[in-house]
Structure formats: C-alpha cells, structure tokens
Amino acid sequence: MAVLKIVAPVLIAVLAFYAYTWESFSEEMVRGKRVLVTGSSTGIGEQMAYEFAWMGAHLMLTARNETRLQKVVQNCLKLGAASASYVVSDMSDLASARNVVEETKKVLGGFDLLVLNHVGGKIGFGPYQGDMESVISSMTVNFFSYVQVTVSALSMLQESRGNIIVVSSISGMGRRLEAPQPK
Ligand SMILES: NC(=O)c1ccc[n+]([C@@H]2O[C@H](COP(=O)([O-])OP(=O)(O)OC[C@H]3O[C@@H](n4cnc5c(N)ncnc54)[C@H](OP(=O)(O)O)[C@@H]3O)[C@@H](O)[C@H]2O)c1
C-alpha cells in the first residue's frame, strides 16, 4: 500500500506531463485541410472556426442562424481561411444533417476533419419530468445527428485518412434521470 501511495502520484504526474506536452494542432497540420465545424454560428464552435481560419483551413460552417453564419464566414476569411462557406441546417432533422455532408462534398470535395460540436434541442437541467418530447428532441440533436453526420461522412474521411473531433460535456456522460422527490 505504501508503494502504491508513492507510485500513483508519480504516475499521475508523468501522465499529466505527457498529456500537456502532447502535440496539439499546429498551422502545418491544418493549412489547406478541409474542415467542417458544426454549431459554428456562436460559442465554442465559432471560436474553433476562427482557430482553424488563422491556421489556413478550408472551412465549412453550419448551424441554423444564417445571419450569424454569414458574419462568422466573413471573420474567418479576414483571419486567413483558405476558403469559408456555410450551409444552414437544423440538426433536429436528420435529412438536414445528411445535407450538411452532401453540401461539404459539393463545395470542398470531401473532408479532412469533422468537428462535431453543436448542442441544442429541448434540454432541461432540472429533474426529469417524464417529458418524452424533450428526450427525443435532445437525443436527435445531440446524439442521432452526430451519428448521421459521421455515417454520411465516413467514406470521405476514410479516403482522406481524416479525423473526427467530438466536443462533449460532462453532463452528457452521467446525468441521472431522477424522479422529483416529494416535498
Ligand atoms: N459552454 C460550456 O461551458 C461547455 C462546457 C462543456 C462542454 N461544452 C460543449 O461544447 C459544445 C459547444 O457548446 P457551446 O457552449 O459553444 O454552445 P452554444 O454557445 O449554445 O452553441 C451551440 C451551437 O449549436 C448550434 N445549434 C443549436 N441547436 C442546433 C440545431 N438544432 N441544429 C443545428 N445547430 C444547432 C447553435 O447555432 P444555432 O442556434 O444558429 O443553430 C450554436 O452554433 C457542446 O457540445 C457543449 O456540450 C460546452
């Protein structure tokens, strides 16, 4: 046990250092690559689009708000994106999710990087109240559309030996559906 008390912290420190020094995205890795970022009209997706833009990627952005997407596209071009386009989509509709991939193929000819980031639907953070409509809405936007986009893009990603990045949340991993307690 005493040995474990010494070995465990040392092991954690070594792993933390290894993770910290792990190669992250560099300009060389991203320049000229074709990148689709979902949920890129605002928030983390918008900021990731800007990072890829200044590294010189070809960008395809998608979300529902067209005005915001147009603004983000302009910003990406100013920052140095090799190209930037958008396709409006509502991920609560899986046909719309498929269309994002078709449009990316049409405009960019394929993918090198698929960044799945959007989050939405009727999500409540309170106790589960038995509302199946919100469960279906949340699962469609936050899970099934991720699967749909991935499946539709897979052959192109295999062809380019590309990568998939999934942005998630700790609340998506372990949310307990508890019935409300009587007061
Ligand atoms: N912010 C945080 O503190 C935090 C923490 C942990 C993890 N995350 C994760 O980071 C990711 C991004 O979060 P965020 O905070 O940047 O979220 P956000 O600011 O709410 O942005 C969500 C994005 O998803 C799009 N979106 C929402 N519903 C959509 C739909 N039905 N169809 C297509 N696009 C839709 C939104 O655009 P439109 O409204 O234009 O469609 C927007 O671009 C999520 O996966 C989230 O779980 C965030």
UniProtKB/TrEMBL annotation:
It holds the Pfam family adh_short. It comes from Podarcis muralis. Belongs to the short-chain dehydrogenases/reductases (SDR) family. InterPro entries: 11-beta-HSD, NAD(P)-bd_dom_sf, SDR_fam. This is Hydroxysteroid 11-beta-dehydrogenase 1-like protein B. It comes from the Eukaryota. GO terms for molecular function: oxidoreductase activity.
